[in-house]
Each structure stands twice: as structure tokens, then as C-alpha cells.
Design a protein that fits this description.
4-stranded mixed beta sheet; 5 helices; single chain
Length: 190
Amino acid sequence: MGSETNDTEQATRPRRRLWARFFRDRRGSTAIEFTMLAIPFSLLVFAILESCISFAGQQVMANVTDDIARQLRTGQIRRTQITETSLKALICNRLEVVVSKGCPGLVVDLREFPNFAAAAAVKIKFTANRDLDTTGFAVTPGPSLSKNMLRVFYKWPVMTDFLRKSMSNLKDGKTLHFASVTWQNEPFDD
């Protein structure tokens, strides 16, 4: 019986030494620590990049919307010259810096209102399946001294898969970017 205990003890002793050496050895600790931190760090970097690119796209769209609205307000673009296709082309030509060619997902709404309160009452609506409700959208700018509102929407694709669920508010993993300008036209010749 005593020899069995000694044999078992002698067999487990090298294993204990091996584990003790493993836990004392610090040569690979940097690699292990880097691996443990690399995944959350990468996730953080991707989240920051995704947010920054999305924000830049939103800002470019807001600037384009302001500029187009100023041209309409001053009469540089005449209401007889503007259609939904031409308005989208004007916006898309400058928006293509940050979005895909042809601006897929671009939606515009340009309408005349009797007063600013009526324009302020217009809300963004969504359909039951989480898409933009475009009911009532039109491109009908008003004449000189009329009140108008231009709303530009873009269905921005969320590029990073693991952020898609938390960042998207539309179906198909997209988030809605929008810009809106309300103004009264200047007294120009119609």
C-alpha cells in the first residue's frame, strides 16, 4: 500500500512542477494580454469609425440641403425648372462624395405651405415594416414670397455587421439621415 502512494505521488509531482512553471513563466503574458484586449479594442475602433463616417455623411447632406434651399429661396433655381428627378440630381451630384453612385436611398420632399405653422406640423412617419412613409411627398415649390420646406432623406447603410442592430432604425439594417430647411422665398420675378 505504501508503494502505491509513493508511485501516485511521484507521478503527480512532475505535473505539479509543470503547472507551477507555467504559472510562473511571464514570457507569453504580453501575447495573452494583447489577445484579450485586441477584440474589445477592435470593436471600439470600428464603432468609432462607423459613427464618424455616418456623421460626416449627415453633415454633407445637411450642407447640400441648405445650399439647394438657398438657390430656391433666391430664385436661382426657378420652380418651373425643378422636378423630382432634377432635384434629386442636384442633391446627388454633391452627395456622391460620401454615398454610392446614383444615391440609392435618396428621397426628397419639397412643398409650398400657407404658413410656417403648417410646415412645422409635418412629421416624419414610418410604415409598419420600419420604412420611411413617403405618403404626401411631392416636389411642388411655391412662387415668389411663398413659404416652402425642403426635406431630404437618405437611407444610410450601416457597414459594420455587429453595429447594424444597434445603429439601424430602418429595415434592411439602414439608418435614416435627414435634413430639413423651411424658408420664405425672396421677392424675385416668377
